[in-house]
Amino acid sequence: MTYRRRRGLGRTSPGAPAGSQATPTRDASADRESMKTLKAIGNLQVPRRWISLSVLVLALFGVGYLTAAEWLFPAATRGEEAPVVRVPDLVGLTAEQAEQLANRLHLEYVVRAGLAHPSAEEGSVLAQSPFPGQFTRPGAPVSVTLSRGPETHILPDVTGLAIRPGTITLERLGFRVRTEQVRDVAPGGRIVGMRPQPGEQLAVPAEVTILVSSGPPAMLVPDLLGRHVNDAADILRRAGLGLGRLISDPNALEAPGRITGQYPPSGYRLGRGKLVEVRVAGTRAEIERERETES
Asked: Of 140, 160, 251, 292, which has the most beta carbons under 10 Å away?
């Protein structure tokens, strides 16, 4: 038997013409492809440095995990329950009450700088950290901010100032300003009084009332036309006013010394003590002579 016959290469399939060779079967072809793939995989080699680096990273991760677990959660790593404390609500308590409560829960009581507050009593707790209801470990600090009570200022004297600068001065110190109008000889809009009195120590925001002048009382100007100049002075004095400048009127038809005009006119309202200017018939010399004669 020849070599080709032993390998089965000389066989022909039934019905095939004599002398034709049989084609390899599909199973044999697939086996050869699989062998090639396995050889290629076997030829691949992973560099040793990548293997070493991977082992080092895994080792460091394991050491770090164990250290963190032991440091942060020591009781949990030993199968014990970690002790925790719920932070109490200290806001509104006095400093003594807050410290006693923190000590009972084995928390460190820490006081921060005080803070002025308009309504909280001095020494009471205004704020805390951590917030109430949070959990922490025994011995952890709880910081509190205490009230220094309301802020106080000496009430400055703003009498004599106009209403705007006086109000600004008081409001910058934290006072609440209330305005009250009063009759006074001072010009309108001037501060003529205060309640409470200046110099008092007040807690802000205390209310301060400033008394503001509405101006002198308005006086009705009388009618002076036709009156003698000497009579005009008395009439104006009784009305709360005064006689102002005398202007001579040499061309007037009235007798010398008689009033031919006035300013402001009759019926006008002036502040108490204001002056009324009059025009008098005659020359300056005649007017002076008439005033001397009547006096």
From this structure: 140
Reported as a single tens digit per residue, the pLDDT across 274-283 is 999 999 999 9
139 within 8 A of 107, measured Cβ to Cβ: yes
Kind and range of the H or E element at 182? strand 176-182
* Predicted model pTM: 0.45
Three-state SS at 124: strand
Q: Which of these, 268, 288, 261, 284, lies nearest to 222 by C-alpha position?
A: 268
- Residue 149's pLDDT is 86
Angle of CA points 178, 208, 124, to nearest 5°: 120
Structure tokens at 241: 């006013």
- Reading the block at residue 45, the tokens are 């080699």
Token pair for residue 253?
């038809």
Bridge-based pairing of strands 242-249 and 269-271 is: unpaired
**Number of other residues whose CB lies within 10 A of the CB of residue 38:** 10
Buried b (16+ CB within 10 A) or exposed e, 44-68: eeeeeeeeeeeeeeeeeeeeeeeee
Listed residue (277, 283, 276) closest to 249, CA to CA: 283
Tally the residues of the chain: 295
Residue 254 burial class via C-beta count within 10 angstroms: exposed 0-12, middle 13-18, buried 19 and up: middle
| 9: three-class secondary structure by DSSP | coil
Give the CA distances from residue 229 to residues 8, 242, 276, 283, 286, in Å, rounded to whole numbers and listed in that order: 164, 12, 12, 13, 12
87-101 pLDDT, tens digit each: 999 999 999 999 999
The secondary structure of residue 115, as a DSSP letter, is B
Tell me how far apart the alpha carbons of residues 224 and 266 are, in angstroms, rounded to a whole number. 8
Contact yes or no for 260/280 (Cβ under 8 A)? yes
